[in-house]
Amino acid sequence: MDIHTVTDGATEFTCNAYLLAGDSPALVDAGSMPGVEDVIADHVDDLDAVYLTHQHRDHVGELDAVLDRFDADLYAYGEHPRRTAALSDGQELSLAGESYEVVFTPGHADDHVSLVGETRVFSGDVVVYNDGAFDDGSFGRTDLSGQSRERLIESLETILDRLPDTVAELYAGHGDVYRADPDGDDDSVRDVIERALERAERREPKYPDE
């Protein structure tokens, strides 16, 4: 299955929006890059569903444009006027023919979920590989209204508890995709998340101006 970062090259602030171009094409987050629906159409003729990790503006800014273009179903944990179905913790999903578990991971956002599969995880903003604060295991900011470092720490622990050892790829809402070396010479995805957890547990400001 091909996975395309359809917001790659954006000139405005946006999340990474991932297109899973399988038998039933699916999009994880819509981003806030104008014209993202055209980029999606460059890869697929139809889009079956959009799955939201959470509803911060950089993840949903162009959601209406995507839904209008493709008439796709919308799956989200939090309420949304165009939501087709609600996501719930522990729910099993099929994204483009692959199985994923919905893991409720609040802290960065109250409605945040991660999608955990056998070989990859779509982590939204709860954990990222590199984001300017840390280059090899970082976590979503928790200094704004409605956010909680304590809840985020618990969410990182939850992901680790429910992460299959076979997961080798981390698709985060920001920064680069992380792919572990199949020969085992690099950190595993679990190593990256554990490092993010250790940093979050220090309870120090992520950015100097927090």
From TrEMBL:
One of its GO terms (molecular function) is hydrolase activity. Keywords: Hydrolase, Metal-binding, Zinc. It holds the Pfam family Lactamase_B. Its cofactor is Zn(2+). It comes from the Archaea. Gene3D superfamilies: Ribonuclease Z/Hydroxyacylglutathione hydrolase-like (3.60.15.10). The keyword Hydrolase applies. Coiled coil: none annotated. InterPro entries: MBL_Glyoxalase_II (IPR051453), Metallo-B-lactamas (IPR001279), RibonucZ/Hydroxyglut_hydro (IPR036866). Residues 14-174 form the Metallo-beta-lactamase domain. This is Hydroxyacylglutathione hydrolase. It comes from Halobellus clavatus.
